[in-house]
Amino acid sequence: MANIKSKQLSSLLNVPTASFDIVSGSLVPDAGNTYDLGSSQLPWRELYILSSSINFNNSSNQSVGKLAVDTEGLQLEVGLPAQRIKQKIKVDRKGIKVESADGALSIYSGSTFFGEPSSSNDLMVLKNSSGNTMFKVDNSGTVVLGTNSPLPTAQEGAIAYSGSDFYLGFAT
User: Fold this and answer.
1) Residue 98: which residues within 8 A CB-CB, separation 6 or more?
2) Residue 57: strand pairing partners
3) pLDDT digits (tens, 9 = 90+) for 9-66
4) How far is 147 from 145, CA to CA, in rounded Å?
5) Which listed residue, 8, 108, 128, 146, has the most CB atoms within 10 A of its CB?
6) Taking a C-beta distance cutoff of 8 angstroms, is the pair 15, 22 a contact?
7) Which residues, including other chains, have CB under 8 Å from residue 73's CB and lie 6 or more apart?
8) 14-26 pLDDT, tens digit each
């Protein structure tokens, strides 16, 4: 009688390999750096996590990065802890804002960049790694270049293109 129940039970417990509906508790491997979650042929479709961050380690189990998300945006950390680069990226309906003392914003050809007006009347401010203003555009259209105090203002300018002549100063 026990064998019959066992056979009936085994026919009820035909569980596909990727189904975890009946698993409870923690899903922990028995050894480090030996298992993959999904594969290129059988990838996981979506990942839902309760924590706000994912930590990344190299094959020596050293922390090499972190991806964290909160209601204001994304924080990306890359590198070993002693040399870690941290970049905060805020996303809202106005666009993307990159905030970091040791980061930079790059705008590539073909990109569109919209500045966000602030209470200080600045549309866009670019600073060097020391925090000095290198380039600034305000709401009145004033363009400021350099780091002197007060900052010099660009009064005249020109557009140079391939095959054109460009003069600094007065041309005769």
Assistant:
1) 87, 88, 89, 90, 104, 105
2) 63
3) 445 555 445 444 545 666 777 777 777 788 888 888 888 877 789 999 988 889 999 9
4) 7
5) 146
6) yes
7) 88, 89, 90, 91, 97
8) 544 544 454 566 6
